[in-house]
Design brief:
The complex is a heterodimer of chains A (431) and B (367). Chain A is of the alpha+beta class. Chain A folds into three domains: 80 residues, RNA polymerase II/Efflux pump adaptor protein, barrel-sandwich hybrid domain (OB fold (Dihydrolipoamide Acetyltransferase, E2P), Beta Barrel), CATH 2.40.50.100; 71 residues, Dihydrolipoamide Transferase; 208 residues, Chloramphenicol Acetyltransferase. Chain A contains twelve helices and 18 strands. In chain B, strand 4 and strand 5 form a beta hairpin. Classes of the chains: A alpha+beta (431), B alpha/beta (367).
């Protein structure tokens, strides 16, 4: 039953103002355009006139209070039947945050995948802060990149600067990170020009596509990729799978070749811990992981996702098979949680179900290796006794980050992988 | 080395400062200094001038209130510049083309746009950029309206539009921009029918006029473009009107462009974007200008003639303000701005890409 007068934006970029003095008190009668309050903002003191006539019901903000733009200053009973103005923004905010939630999984995935790239981005980010706040931060020696904003539209306030001052040491780390990362900044983007625009159509990239593009580009920028190719005869593996396929099916589990490869990769990572590592650019440290989370790239009609099998080392073949199916379904339904896509050790990119042989997969940052798996094809194969046979040949392509992994190490790892897949019984020994 | 000087630069410089007195009809004490010019106005004319200035000040006051109530977008205060703005625009005809800058909203309305449209313009609404009047929307880029005016003037000449000119405004700061010279030079070169008005209100936001240029008068900026120019007392509406009308007559006779510098003052801040004039000028500087106030000056003349009273003025102000309150409510009721509205107005004939975008947004908007 009353009008809530909210602090308007009195100057360009104004985020907050201070109540200098009230010119009315509770119970006063005010007419439209009567002065209500003096507001001190960054640039000047402004007298705010009342937009309505009525009785002052409540002074919500007190003299000396700092009020954000959009916050209620005063409630005036103007006899209006309703306060739609009051409810509308709240409803709007809700819907906005819901929108964000919908977009979030896709975006977060990529941010995770492109973590080092995100560090580059932060160096170029624009910070929203009033000139006085910037000056204040400079005087206090606080780097705005380390301050988390609490103001409207992500504005940094003086209070935020104060809050960040205690964390000044970590700020140094962050800026060092930024400058290191900057050296890897890619070339400037050029527009695509066309001589025949009428024969072409343009379409905005979806959020997920943009995120994939960014992640791929940054991975190639950051990590010098090398890909080693190999092929392995997998008749024994096929036989093993055939043997247990029905048993799995009885438990509603679809047993593919992937769980074998997951298990084999776990064994490889145990033997060669460099494959289960990440590089911290800011400190030039190698981070070795003592967990084995194997990611499986999952193609959906709405983008590429990489959920990982957590602690694959402590899971049985059937359990892994089941989890692969569940993750892939969740990816299709757009229901993958962030947790499922973060903290990976290594990734498998399997195009074999569609066809194909060797290819050069791009590393899923911040991991250091990715295994590309092609289809199993009938090909001539020379066995250990020197006889030519028709072999079941599986094509493997192992891309690795040459900053950490050298060619010989990669070949040794690939040799082990080869052995394990050729003779799956070995998985019992090594896995 | 010849030591006898063939040129006396100091004398040339001094000569530059040798300016004619700005044109005035009523002086600061409301004394008639040009009787012939004064006698050309009827009592009704004088009352009409007064009403227009009272209207402009009421518009300023009410609009600034709306602004502080959070009901406006960008707006430039006009208090103090009523004679300069109303005097010049009233001398124009409806068929003339106005190229306003952002402080020229009162002239835009006077030339035929509605207050509601002006308020929508301030809010960035698409409907605030289309008027039945012959006018562009107020130009935000300082000095750029001068270039547009040169182009429109050339169009008038090309189409042989009879008894028609383009007229445009900028401030003292605008004359320091390259655009304003380019516009004048182009119009001069092609003898386009354009009236360039410089409202010298003393400040380019916070930079005082004297720090902006070494030129003794801004009217001299037209000289290099071969354009006749004149300084006029911008607080004297009779002088502003008379000079603007004479300029218009001269231009429509096929003599090419003219430039007028009105010497005026802005009492308030540069804009509602929040500058505090107290930080760049003192109260003592402002006070003499209040004494030259254009409303006081004409009010005295009218009161002496028994044509005006405080009651009459108060009543008018009340009426005007009430109508502005209706206007802002009408602006509130305007249909929601759609992205497709903006796209459709970008090019007269949309590009293939834009056509696709328009279709895409229209489909979204109809949901």
């Amino acid at each position: 039953m009353a009008f809530k007068f909210k602090l308007p934006e009195l100057g360009e970029g104004m985020a907050e103002g201070e109540v200098a003095s009230w010119l009315v008190k509770e119970g006063d009668q005010v007419k439209e355009d009567d002065s209500l309050v003096e507001i001190q903002n960054d640039k000047s003191v402004e007298e705010l006139p009342s937009p309505v006539s009525g009785t002052v019901k409540q002074l919500v903000a007190q003299e000396g209070d700092t009020v954000e733009v959009g916050d209620t200053l005063i409630v005036i009973d103007d006899g209006s039947p309703d306060t739609p103005d009051d409810d509308a923004p709240a409803a709007k905010d809700d819907s906005a945050s819901e929108d964000n939630k919908e977009e979030a999984p896709a975006e977060d995935t990529a941010d995770k995948t492109a973590a080092p790239a995100a560090a580059t981005g932060s160096a170029d980010k624009n910070y929203l802060a009033m000139p006085s706040v910037r000056q204040y931060a400079r005087d206090k020696g606080v780097d705005l990149s380390t301050v988390s904003p609490s103001g409207k539209h992500g504005q940094i306030t003086k209070a935020d600067v104060d809050g960040a001052q205690s964390g000044a040491t970590s700020a140094e780390g962050a800026s060092a990170d930024a400058s290191t990362a900057k050296t890897t900044t890619a070339e400037p983007v050029k527009p695509y020009k066309s001589e025949t625009p009428e024969l072409e159509t343009r379409e905005k990239m979806s959020m997920t596509r943009k995120v994939i593009a960014k992640a791929m580009r940054s991975s190639k920028d950051i990590a010098p990729h090398v890909t080693s190719f190999d092929d392995v005869e997998v008749s024994a593996l096929m036989a093993n799978r055939k043997k247990y396929k029905q048993m799995a099916a009885d438990q509603d589990i679809h047993l593919t070749f992937l769980p074998y490869i997951v298990k084999a990769l776990v064994a490889v990572m145990k033997a060669y811990p460099e494959f289960n590592a990440s590089i911290d650019n800011t400190t030039d440290e190698i981070v070795y992981k003592h967990y084995f989370n194997v990611g499986i790239a999952t193609n959906t009609d709405h983008g590429l996702y990489v959920p990982n099998i957590k602690n694959a080392d402590s899971k049985g073949m059937f359990e892994i098979a089941k989890e692969i199916t569940e993750n892939s379904q969740a990816a299709y339904d757009n229901k993958l949680s962030m947790d499922k896509m973060s903290g990976g050790s290594i990734t498998i990119s399997n195009v074999g179900s569609i066809g194909g042989g060797w290819f050069t997969p791009v590393i899923n940052q911040p991991e250091v290796a990715i295994l590309g798996v092609g289809k199993i094809a009938n090909e001539p194969y020379v066995d250990d006794d020197g006889n030519i046979q028709v072999g079941k040949m599986l094509k493997l392509s192992l891309s690795y980050d040459h900053r950490l992994i050298d060619g010989a190490l990669a070949q040794n790892a690939l040799n082990l992988l080869n052995k394990l897949l050729h003779d799956p019984d070995m998985l019992l020994m090594e896995g | 080395m010849a030591n006898k000087s063939v040129v006396d630069f100091e004398a040339i410089k001094k000569d530059l400062a040798n300016l004619p007195k700005p044109i005035q009809i009523l002086d600061e004490n409301s004394k008639v200094v040009d009787q012939d010019a004064f006698d050309s106005f009827s009592d009704d004319d004088l009352v009409e001038f007064m009403k227009k200035m009272v209207w402009e000040r009421a518009l300023h006051e009410q609009t600034m209130n709306f602004s502080r109530q959070g009901r406006m977008g960008f707006y430039a205060p006009t208090e103090g510049e009523e004679a300069s703005e109303m005097g010049t625009v009233l001398a124009m005809k409806k068929q003339d083309y106005l190229l306003p800058a952002y402080r020229d909203v009162p002239q835009l309305i006077q030339h035929g746009a509605t207050v509601t449209e002006a308020y929508l313009w301030s809010r960035g609404h698409v409907l605030g950029n289309e008027y039945k009047a012959n006018s562009m929307m107020p130009q935000i880029i300082i000095g750029a309206a001068y270039d547009e005016a040169a182009g429109v003037g050339l169009g008038i000449k090309k189409n042989k539009e009879e008894d028609t000119i383009a007229f445009t405004y900028t401030g003292d700061g605008g004359t320091s921009q390259g655009d304003s010279y380019e516009g004048m030079n182009f119009a001069g070169a092609y003898q386009a029918p354009v009236l360039f008005i410089v409202q010298n209100n003393g400040f380019a936001i916070s930079t005082p006029r004297k720090k902006q240029t070494a030129a003794p008068a801004l009217s001299q900026k037209a000289v290099a473009a071969g354009i006749p120019s004149v300084q006029v007392d911008g607080m004297d509406i009779l002088a502003c009107y008379t000079v603007a009308k004479a300029a218009r007559d001269y231009i429509t006779a096929g003599n090419g462009p003219v430039m007028i510098e009105t010497l005026t003052y802005r009492y308030g801040a540069h804009s509602s974007a929040g500058d505090d004039p107290k930080r760049y000028r003192t109260e003592e500087e402002v006070k003499p200008w209040h004494e030259k106030d254009p409303l006081i000056r004409l009010r005295k003349v009218l009161e002496d003639k028994g044509l005006w009273s405080d009651e009459q003025e108060d009543k008018l102000v009340e009426e005007y303000k009430a109508s502005f309150k209706d206007d802002i409510k009408e602006a509130d009721a305007a249909p929601k701005d759609e992205v497709s509205d903006m796209l459709k107005r970008t090019f007269e004939i949309p590009t293939p890409e834009m056509k696709q975008e328009i279709e895409k947004f229209e489909a979204k908007e109809s949901n």
